[in-house]
Structures are given as structure tokens and as C-alpha cells.
Amino acid sequence: xxRLRFILGAAAxxxxxxxxxxxxxxxxxxxxxxYGKVVRGPYETNRFGDNWFIGxxxxxxxxxxxxxxxxxxxxxxxxxxxxxxxAVGMRIGYSGLNTNYWADNPSVLGRTxxxxxxxxxxxxxxxxxHGDFLWNMSxxxxxxxxxxFWDMVPYLHAGFFRAYGVDGASYHNNEIAAGAGMIHNLRxxxxxxxxxxxxxxIVNGRVNGSEDVALxxxxxxxxxxxxxxxxxxxTSSVIGALESASVDQxxxxxxxxxxxxxxxxxxxxxxxxxxxxxxxxxxxxxxxKNSKDGMDPAEFYKAxxxxxxxxxxxxxxLSVDEMQHLDYIAKNILAKADKxxxxxxxxxxxxxxxxxxxxxxxxxxxxxxxYVADLLAAKYGIAKDRLVVKSEVxxxxxxxELDRAVKITF
Length: 410
Hints:
By secondary structure, the protein is α+β, with helices and mostly antiparallel strands. The chain folds into two domains: about 1-245, Beta Barrel (Porin), CATH 2.40.160.20; about 245-410, CATH 3.30.1330.60. Helix content is about 30%, strand content about 35%. It has seven helices and 14 strands. The chain has helices spanning about 1-25, 135-140, 235-245, 245-290, 295-305, 320-340, 360-380; strands at about 50-60, 70, 70-85, 90-105, 115, 120-135, 150-165, 170-185, 190-205, 215-225, 305-310, 345-350, 385-395, 405-410. The strands form two sheets. Strands 1-3-4-6-7-8-9-10 form an eight-stranded antiparallel beta barrel.
């Protein structure tokens, strides 16, 4: 019967190990994008209270050391852990209860001869407090999948191992132990897993008063409960949506953006040229205004000619800015000229020939001259018989903006 239990325990270990490998590949097909590619992250950083778990289970262990015959003993596990990413986590755990084996000679751990085995059964209790580094191989290789039924989690562990006597035996020993293990998480519900924990503890043989290195493999089965938010949120959903967008739409948007940048650059350059010309005109007018009272009228009008206002391309009306310039010219220069009986005001409408047809440009220059002359008469009260309206089309130049104007001379 004892030998049968040992065989069944070993068979359970082998069955779990042999069935584990296909699980990763068999269940990953539900975690792929529209192109069939496994999606592995990245993921949002979880909060401190998220992705915790607590679990406990019971099972069997075997004590292996050179010179002794193995036997099966009871084992329990309990642990508290946290997942930092879908693939990486840590756990603090307790493993123990007691273990036993057969020896040829009696000791403080067992003095009764078993006639069937013709050996002495040695038995001691143990307690192993350990920290575990967890690696979820299923999520790491197959991509995170919230509803995956079977997760494989290999891990490394190390900690404090204490052996002690049972059944009244006065014995104890403290050692540092380490090892490796494999957890199989079977999803039963959103927050409940069935857990099969396989591990091997490597510890100094002094734990049972012998030499060499002792090995304590164990298999336990139990349950784990998730605490806090149990899942992870992938941050690549926006990136995936952009990648799946139409290539033609993206190309069209990029071309439109380039065209807008070029148009803005051209407008900014034209506006800068007009602003510089207007600033120069304002400076000239201010300078002359400060000195005009002591200047001969003939010299004044000669110095002031010509003054100009500028039009946008294809327009025969002034912008708001240029209306302010015309208002300044009319009140500070033309008003004085209107009071001089022998002074006539020539209004010369002009257009550039860089764009448009000859006929269109001629009509545009005439319209601009008439527009300004009408404003001077109607808005500023300058007599029409003092206004001489002319028009011209200027040959193509490098700065056509300066020829889209009305020039006023005396």
C-alpha cells in the first residue's frame, strides 16, 4: 500500500509536467489581432491595491537524501502575492507540515522497526518561509488573455527552513533553502482559480542529521482568490486602431497638412512685407508731421509724394488695416492739401501684371483708383474737382504686392 501511494504521487507529478507544455500554445489563439499576430502589451501600470491574490492548498511531499529510502508525507502551502505585470509577480509563502523516510538505523527521529520494510521510519516536521519570483509563461509567450483557462507559472524561491522533531522527539535545525517550482492556475471564475503547485526545496542535509544535500519535492492542490482589480489594461489599443486605418486616408491627410503649411508660410511672408511697408510709411508721415509747420508748402508736398495704400491680391476694396492708414493720410496730409487752392491731388490706381489677364488688371487698377477717390470725397470731404483719378498696370516685378495699390501724389 505504501509503495502504491508513492507510485501514484510520482505519476501525478509526471502527468502535470507532460500536459503543461501544450497548454500555452493551445490557448493563445484567443489573444490575437486582426492579422493573426499575438498581442503582448504594453500595459498600464496597476495601482498598489490591484492584482493581489491569496491561496492555500494541501498535498504530498517526498524527502530525498543519499542513503535513505523515500516515503510520502503530507504537505500544505499558503501564500500571498501580487502581479506587477501580466507576466511578472512576487509571492510570500509558507510550506511545511512533516516528511518521512526509511533508514537502516534508528535515530532520535524514529526508533521503531517496521517489520514489513525491515527499516526504521524517520519523521520530522518542517516549516519553510520563502519568497517567490513568479513568471507567467503563458502570458509572456502567448500574450495576456483575461479568460485563459490554464496559466503556467514557473518560479524561483528562497527562504528560511526550520526542521523540528515530532511525536515528542527533541530535535531542531535551521537552514537557508532555495529551489524552483511550477504553478498551474486553472481559472474557475473571474476571481477564483484552482491551483496545482509543484516545487522542489534544496536544503542542507543537516536538517535530518545527515550530510550532503537534501531534496524535498512536493505537489499541492488548492484554491487562490484574486483581490483588488484582477485584470490588466493594454495601452496599445489606440496604436492598433491607427495601424488598421486606411493607408490612403493617412496619405491624404499628410498631403493636406503639407499644403496648409506651405500656404501659411506664403501668407506670413506677404503679411510681413506689407507690414514693413506700412511701418515705413507711418514713420515717414510722423517725421514729416513733426516738421511740416516750419516747411514751405511746395517742399512739404514734394516730400510727401507719393503716399500709398495697399490692396490684397484681386481685391478692389481696402482691408481694415489699410482703411486705418487711409484715414491717417486723409486727416494729416490730404486735409492740408485740400486747403491749398493751387494743389491738386492725383489718385493713381495700379495693379501688377504677375497674375491675371491684361484686361482684368486694367479694370482692377481703374476700380481701385475710383474706390479711393470716392472715399476721399464722401468720407473726408475733399472736393471732387481737386481729385485727378488715373490708372496703370505695372510690369511684372519681384515684389508684386507693392504694385497692388493706390498712390497719391500732389
